From TrEMBL, chain A:
A GO molecular-function descriptor: ATP hydrolysis activity
Keywords: ATP-binding, Nucleotide-binding, Transport
Protein name in the entry: ABC transporter ATP-binding protein
Biological source species: Spirosoma profusum
A GO CC annotation given for this chain: membrane protein complex
Coiled coil (residue ranges): none
Pfam families, alphabetized: ABC_tran (PF00005)
Classification of source organism: Bacteria, Pseudomonadati, Bacteroidota, Cytophagia, Cytophagales
Alphabetized CDD domains for the sequence: ABC_MJ0796_LolCDE_FtsE (cd03255)
Stated family: Belongs to the ABC transporter superfamily. Macrolide exporter (TC 3.A.1.122) family.
SUPFAM superfamilies in the cross-refs: P-loop containing nucleoside triphosphate hydrolases (SSF52540)
Domain ABC transporter: 5-229
From TrEMBL, chain B:
Bilayer disposition of the protein: Multi-pass membrane protein
PANTHER family: LIPOPROTEIN-RELEASING SYSTEM TRANSMEMBRANE PROTEIN LOLE
Primary residence: membrane
UniProt key word Cell membrane: yes
Record localization: Cell membrane
A cellular component term, taken from the record's GO annotations: plasma membrane protein complex
Residue ranges of domain ABC3 transporter permease C-terminal in the record: 287-409
Protein's UniProt name: ABC transporter permease
Transmembrane region(s): 21-42, 283-303, 328-354, 382-400
Signal sequence, renumbered to the chain: none
Family (UniProt): Belongs to the ABC-4 integral membrane protein family. LolC/E subfamily.
Keyword tags: Cell membrane, Membrane, Transmembrane, Transmembrane helix
Amino acid sequence: MSTVLSASHVNKYFYDPEKFQVLKDVTFDVQKGEFLSIVGKSGCGKSTLLYLLSTMDTDYEGQIEMAGTPLKGRNQDFLAQFRNEHLGFVFQFHFLLPEFSALQNVMLPGLKLGKYSEKDVEERAMEKLRLIGMADFARKSASKLSGGQQQRVAIARALINDPTIIMGDEPTGNLDKANTENVFSIFRDLAQKGQTIIAVTHDPDFADGTDRVIEMSDGMIIASHENKVQ
Amino acid sequence: MDIRIASQIARTHLLAKKRQTLVAMLGVTFGIAMFITMISFMQGVNQFLEDSALDASPHIRMYNEVNTQRPSLIQQLKPGQFNVVYHQKPKDEQARIKNGITIAERVEKEAGVLGVSPQVATQAFYNNGPIQLSGTISGVDIERENRLYKLTTRLKSGTINNLKTNPDGLIMGVVLARKLNVQLGDKVSVTTPVGGTRILRVVGTFGFGVGTVDNTKSYANLSTVQEMLQKDPSYITDIHVKMNDPLQALPFGKRLRAMYGYYTEDWATANTAILAGEKIRNVMTFVVSMTLLVVAGFGIYNIMNMTVINKIKDIAILKATGFDGKDIVAIFLLQAVFIGLTGGLLGLFIGFGLSYMLSITPFDAGDFLSIKTFPVIFDGKYYVMGILFGVITTVLAGFFPSRKAAQVDPVSILRG
């Protein structure tokens, strides 16, 4: 197994309303193919950590390395390109572009990457939608899909460029039980196929199903334990 | 940056909000249409006034300025002394241009000269029965005069050939003829300031559409007027010159003055008031058009700003999935450009339609102006200018909201 992500001595401060240390010397590695969950109470800094790892927040101390690339101090354009190629996101509030069809939503990051022709990207997008069982809804406008359906399309979108890591911020936080199980089983399947996944959650059932759980409190990692693979 | 994806997203955004897009577009359309209409009309008016003034006046008029002020002989001999001369009369100086015909022939050979007409101009009294009117009479070579002023197109009755065949012929300004109550074939008695009187027959009437000319002026044969003034056949008072390019007249006039020593007056000096009016109208046109376009620009700015605010989540998600600042700017700028371009093109069509309708609207300007409809100029230049202004305004109006969109911090939006 190889290390795809390593965070070393990451410190993060909030300055508003007053200086406050959100993350304190956070250091951990993620192996390829690992299904990792980060848990902790609200305000413990787990989401903040995820957004640092996502490269969208660049204001921190320490070093984050992903897919062999050190990410500290890179410019925004480089990071955008990097996200496009190596990262897939699934957010709590689905966040599809409402004017586009499900298929177009999945295709957009692929078109942006420009590695494949438009036809190939469309084929790949259909394949990803089939993988998560949404192929029948491909032509439907995103705004006409239910919450659970949108989240599944979002997962397909995260997968389109075969990213190094998929990151989820409470990916099941806004879904009912049936949909949660549905989404979780998709993640589980992907992990089985060797996809690295990092998800922030406060759903204990979700965390229990992952390979490894990192528990945070007050900006520090207080525990990291592996779950037995069922 | 991939312009194709950006344009695809931009198109989807525009189509999703058709009504908003249309309203923004119509703002530009209205601005450009008014711009086109106004500038075509204003330039038409300018052109018409300039033409009517220029057509009726020479580009350069060369004449001998009779200066009655002269120092006395003793003053010339003993300057600076206390000299008194009682009742000194002005010198009898003639208004003639010496060798006028020769000068005219030489000027005619210069490059850029369209035509030269040497003539004798004098004040005259027109008498028809009890009616007495003062005016001017010009003795001309009618063929040359025709080349300068296109008299054939100005004639209201008669032909210029009538004048050539009839030494006592007279072509009269149309308003003057009406005031004298004379028609083609009627006789008029013309008296010059030196006392010569002659009965001339009206063989034609002309109208330049310029009051000061149609009201007072008549053409007669050069030799006829020379005889009336009791002068020899080489007597010439004015040389009128027309150039191919009116602008060339200004330096050329100065050159003629230096070369022959006679006073020259160019059309720009003679028509200062018209040119000043033209400048003022130009400024006015541009100010009003610019205001319209700026208002349209603010409309677009508002709508683009709203769009950016509405789409802030989409922007965050696009950034999260790897679209960079330049892509986001492109997406929103393309929308602005599309609005500007289609709105502008529509504006050009409507502007053309409005100017066309204006150009066929009847307009009664009375005797003084020779037009029947509003003067409108159709010039591709204005349409190019209109679309350029339209696109530039919309790009500027779209740029700031787009930049704002590019600066959206995805983290703060996505964390909710």
